[in-house]
Amino acid sequence: MSSIPPIPLEDHQASGLLDIHVVSFVHSLRAAGYAERSVVKRQSVAKVFVRWARDEQVTVADLDESHIAGFLKRLPKREKDQMALERAALRLFLRHLRDEGEVPPPPKRDDSSTVAAIETQYMDFLRNERGLTEQSIYVYSPFIRDFLAEWADRADSGSPGAWDAQFVDDFLLHHAHDRSSEYTRLLATTLRSFLRFLHLRGETAADLSASVPMVRRWREATVPTVLSPEEVERTLSTADPSTACGRRNHAILLLLARLGLRAGEVVALELGDIRWRTAQLCIRGKGRVLDQLPLLSEVGQALALYLEMDRGESTSRRVFLRMIAPRVGLTGPAAVGHIVRRAFAQAGMQPTSRGAAHLFRHSLATRMLRQGASMAEIAEILRHRSQTTTSIYAKVDFEALRGIAGSWPGTGGAR
Fold first, then answer.
1. Catalytic residue from among 21, 42, 96, 361
2. What sign does the CA torsion over 251, 323, 316, 139 have?
């Protein structure tokens, strides 16, 4: 396929350095897979910005986010959609200039402070030594940031060695007030982990993690929401096999329904994880655990069809890419959840439970149980670390439960 010729710039802009980088910016957008209509819009914004920067006598090396804000304020009464388009286009343009080395990187946060250094070290510890996923780190980080900020605000804070159990208890009680039990449990878990980390690093003489109370979590007696086999098949049939998006989504839905993958595991799947010769999938589970699952024929055919016809070239090694530019891996588990919810809507279904993608996992376990699989077998397929997690599915085998349940006494002792 022939390449699309570059869009010419006005003659009077040809000599400016920024004009040269507008051309380079356009090439980078095309290389990233942006549609030509999107390229034209972003180029137009960049060219107007160039003229504005020239009038304001802003040099390339001095450009930063403040100049984007100044540019957007020049006509404050414009429509919000136009403002959003310009802001997004100029952020891409500035990022391109930084990648080209013409604009210095944004100023980094001063990590020389004790607070910032401790936070960075703890996040690195979670990532590199504990093997937590970025999603888990994202959950932990706000709690630690609040804890460190409150410590820094104390006039007598000193080093972490000056902390005591009273300070920890005061923080926990203050932030747990009027919050849900789940929030409090996560806060306590995070604090316990962080304080244990500080003690292991020698920052505190005593292990203050013992001062964080356990938050009791009652296991709900509710039965997990599941889809019937007919509902699963109806959802799978919503993916249009005649479109690139439909073929990608069909492969994703099959991974969820036939193998019980978590949404994050689908997102993390890389090209090298598909072992075609041995018909296996290498799954990157929780805590950096690598598991092997059989590559079922139906799943393998869907993956092969998508990879051959629709994925295309990309610098990303992820199996599943965005359908619009930039052509990189899916942003996270929420993207898979969106695909599943849209499939449910197309199938005329409205499941009420949270975690749309996880419904397939529950449904697979329930179907296996009703077909005679043992708890150990289900735990192996779902890759549960503890069979206690798998035991929730014992509640859904109603036919088996009827066989062991005693009759309920009626009026006057009748049964």
1. 361
2. negative
List 34, 122, 140, 393, catalytic entry: 393
217 is catalytic: no
Q: Which of 30, 51, 199, 286 is catalytic?
A: 286
Q: Which long-range contacts (CB under 8 A, 24 or more apart) does 305-308 make?
A: 305/247, 305/251, 306/247, 306/248, 306/250, 306/251, 307/271
Residues 6+ apart with CB under 8 A from 397: 366, 369, 370
Q: Residue 293 phi/psi, 5° resolution?
A: -125, 150
The span from the first CA to the last CA of the chain, in angstroms, equals 79
36 CB burial (10 A radius; 0-12, 13-18, 19+): exposed
**Active-site residue among 185, 199, 383, 384?**
384
Q: What is the pTM of this model?
A: 0.62
Annotation says 338 is catalytic: no
Query: pLDDT of the chain along its 415 residues, tens only?
Result: 444 444 343 433 333 456 777 888 888 888 777 778 888 999 999 999 988 888 888 877 788 888 888 888 887 677 777 888 888 888 888 888 888 887 888 766 554 466 778 888 898 898 888 877 776 787 788 888 888 877 776 645 556 666 778 888 888 888 887 777 778 888 899 999 999 998 888 888 888 888 888 877 665 555 567 888 999 999 999 999 999 999 999 999 999 999 999 888 899 899 999 999 999 999 877 666 788 899 999 999 999 999 999 998 888 899 999 988 888 898 888 889 899 999 999 999 887 666 788 889 888 888 888 888 877 887 888 887 766 666 666 555 544 545 545 555 666 555 5
Is 262 marked active-site?
A: yes
Residue 138: active-site member: no
At CB < 8 A and 24+ separation, what contacts does 32-39 make? Answer: 32/325, 32/326, 32/327, 33/312, 33/314, 33/324, 33/325, 33/326, 33/327, 34/325, 34/326, 35/324, 35/325, 36/4, 38/325, 39/7
Active-site residue identified among 262, 327, 362, 367: 262
What sign does the dihedral 232-237-241-244 (CA atoms) show? negative
Amino acid making up residue 154: R
Query: Are 313 and 158 in contact, with CB atoms under 8 Å apart?
Result: no
CA distance 360 to 348: 16
- What residues have CB less than 8 Å from 305, skipping those under 6 apart? 247, 251
